[in-house]
Amino acid sequence: MSDARERMKGKKLFLNLGSGSKPMLNYVNIDKEAGSSVDLVLDLEKGIPFSDNSVEKIYCGSFFEHLKNPNSFLKEVFRVLKKGASITIVTDNACCFAHYLPFKKVGKIHVGTHTSNEFEHYALYTMQDLQRHLNLFGFSHVSVKFFKGFGKWFSLFLKAEAIK
């Protein structure tokens, strides 16, 4: 962890949470699984090991739906973000018909109970769900839009942006 922190010393701290194999330049790329593009290997379900009010920007791409407890995660995100800092969440759109096609494997979709595979989705979200989650933890200027597609039924993803 010290290498990533050392590299970011004196710079604005941007975190790419749940980065997987999609690193972002000038971000600390954090994932549960080690990989060549991962700066820090952490279980983000157990907290975010950065100081209060220390992070300028957080990006979560195709990660939020894999969280067992999104509320505790958002509480941690709010804690580490500086006032005026932003979070962007890109997650599957629960209303997109493609998630319900019989040939598409999406794992066990549910809310509140555990699945057997760590990489399966724990929940899918609607625009209203994301808005509600972010507002619940005090985020402002919350914007949720359809992403990569068009309209409610044909957009695979939702993109939520909010400010602390």
- What structural category characterises the helix and strand content? alpha/beta
What helical percentage do the residues reach? 10-25%
What is the count of helical runs? 4
| CATH homologous superfamily designation | Vaccinia Virus protein VP39
Q: Quaternary status of these chains?
A: single chain
- CATH topology call: Rossmann fold
User: Taking all residues together, what is the mean pLDDT?
Assistant: 84
Report the order of strands and helices.
HEEEEHEHEHE
Describe the structure.
With 164 residues, the protein is of the alpha/beta class. Helices cover 20% and strands 27% of the residues. The chain is built from four helices and seven strands, in the order αββββαβαβαβ. The protein has helices at residues 2-8, 70-80, 127-136, 151-154, and strands at residues 14-17, 28-31, 40-41, 55-61, 81-92, 140-147, 157-163. The chain has a seven-stranded mixed β-sheet. Helix 2 (70-80) links the parallel strand 4 (55-61) and strand 5.
Keywords:
164 residues; 7 strands; Rossmann fold; 7-stranded mixed beta sheet; globular
What topology emerges from the helices and strands here?
Layout: H1 2-8, E1 14-17, E2 28-31, E3 40-41, E4 55-61, H2 70-80, E5 81-92, H3 127-136, E6 140-147, H4 151-154, E7 157-163
Parallel strand pairs: 1-2, 1-4, 2-3, 4-5
Antiparallel strand pairs: 5-7, 6-7
